């Protein structure tokens, strides 16, 4: 009988430790999540429709923010961005803990890509996507396309993810001596996407190798390319330095873009998370 009691005791101990671990994870996340304030802004620009879509939500696991930019010039841009964001939020709502957030990003991206391709049924379309999860003071992210995630800290921006455009390929050709820097800068395919959701060749999205440490006073920004193309980094820094709430900062960015009145202004969306 003794081995039986040893096995039972070990099983009970394992179950108790597992429950304690889950409760500690949830408790830690909840304390910090409550300190996050979120602002958002969006403009249709000079386009005929708004193809950007965004969402944010908070659960016991953490705070999710996601921005998708339906590819302008292709049909079904709005469908693609909406489907992708909805897929990410629904999957996040089902998460019970933060033990495998990169797995969550990867699976949500695969589901989004599959769903978009099924809806496109051979037609043109697709979307970029940038998503972050703030869990405790840790930032997890996934991104595909050219929407950018940045951290504003101590007066300066830090870029989190890469742009998946032909620019990278052109830079490699410059390094290989196959073209000049000037030719690369003026290439008409420079901003062409090389990876996005709704792409037949999609394999994976960019994921952080490790969570990024956040600090009180940091701001995490998610921007569609309409923000980056219309506002210089200096202009964005000036807006952030003026302070205010995240909503006031987001409003200031959109107002500045609208005041410029560019004839070819793209859809533009910004989400700002203030870390308390």
UniProtKB/TrEMBL annotation:
<feature type="domain" description="PPM-type phosphatase">
    <location>
        <begin position="37"/>
        <end position="275"/>
    </location>
</feature>
<dbReference type="InterPro" id="IPR036457">
    <property type="entry name" value="PPM-type-like_dom_sf"/>
</dbReference>
<protein>
    <submittedName>
        <fullName>Serine/threonine protein phosphatase</fullName>
        <ecNumber>3.1.3.16</ecNumber>
    </submittedName>
</protein>
<keyword id="KW-0378">Hydrolase</keyword>
<dbReference type="Pfam" id="PF13672">
    <property type="entry name" value="PP2C_2"/>
</dbReference>
<dbReference type="GO" id="GO:0004722">
    <property type="term" value="F:protein serine/threonine phosphatase activity"/>
</dbReference>
<dbReference type="InterPro" id="IPR001932">
    <property type="entry name" value="PPM-type_phosphatase-like_dom"/>
</dbReference>
